[in-house]
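Supplementary notes for students who missed Thursday's class. We covered one full example, reproduced here. Read the sequence, then the structure, then the short commentary at the end.
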Amino acid sequence: MALRVDLRVPSCRPIPGVVDFVRQCEDAGLNGVGLLDSQLLVRDIFVTMGMVAHQTRRIKIMTCVTNPVTRHPAILASAIASIAEMAPGRVELILGSGYSAVRTIGLTPATVAQMRDAVLAIRRLLQGETVKFNGVSSHLAFPPQHPIPIYVAAVNPRVIELAAEVADGVLLQVGMSPGILATARRHIEEGARRADRAPADVKVAVCLRVAVAKDVRAALEESRSVCANWVLEKHRSRWLKAAGIPIPEFAEFPPEVRAIYPDLSHPEDPVAARKATAFLSEEMLRAICDALGVVGPEKHLFQRLKEAEEWGVSHVYLMTPATYELPREVLAAFKHNPSRGVGRDHAPSGETSS
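Structure (token representation):
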């Protein structure tokens, strides 16, 4: 089976332009697109998903990611079931704890317990079962005809284990190296064990941070603020240590970093974010980029995808550093390399990929 390759597509432009971009992704052979759910930063995810579903025929469409804090589980179940009516067999729900979506409105990310409750409630609703919310028993009047896979996006080891225990799959947002993958797989095995489930039954996607450019140094600088975030946040830096990268300790975020809106992973002003993270040496920047994904020319991207397959990865999710720009360079790479072996073994049930 060919490697499944999905691409993060933030709805950072007027919706018709985003839809056209996704159609180009489909034509280029990409298997799926993930749409960001972060109110205020990008267009509404479900409005965009509906338009994408209507205008495409093969490509998978995912929430990547939504969360149970800004959207109640019942609302998520209703929304994703509605989208599935327009794209049966092509829709997937990826839940996270909330990041920029909760930060921009002063809320707190979902706890592990909240994530567990959300996954279980949404699955039951999608299966037509009754769920009790605040003492009120409710059900979804239009459960989907095709199962909708539920993934959990995870950095924290406890969340990886939760995904393996209760979800259909996990999106590992931990980077990719032999050490990282071995550590993550141990947590998947632990979560699956709790549910008396075979680890092989847990669908696993690996997120790769990518910056495609002929100028490697420019690609590194584009990735700087994201990489710095991985150094500063302890639940992320543990994965860099698993890759063998020595990480400096910071007692607290530097004040110039705290001033970046809304955060280092989604900076509205990337120039200011790069200046605020100038403390990261080029040597460390290169090492982190190698651990998290790939930077540089198109050939580097496809070498990394080949490496992923060699390391037993069957599904990757490509994510560029930019939230407010469409990933045109990544799309161009697939347009320039149409025979890279992706996209043809993952047609939805009942459809062909011809």
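Commentary. The radius of gyration is 19 Å. The mean pLDDT is 94. If anything here is unclear, bring it to office hours.
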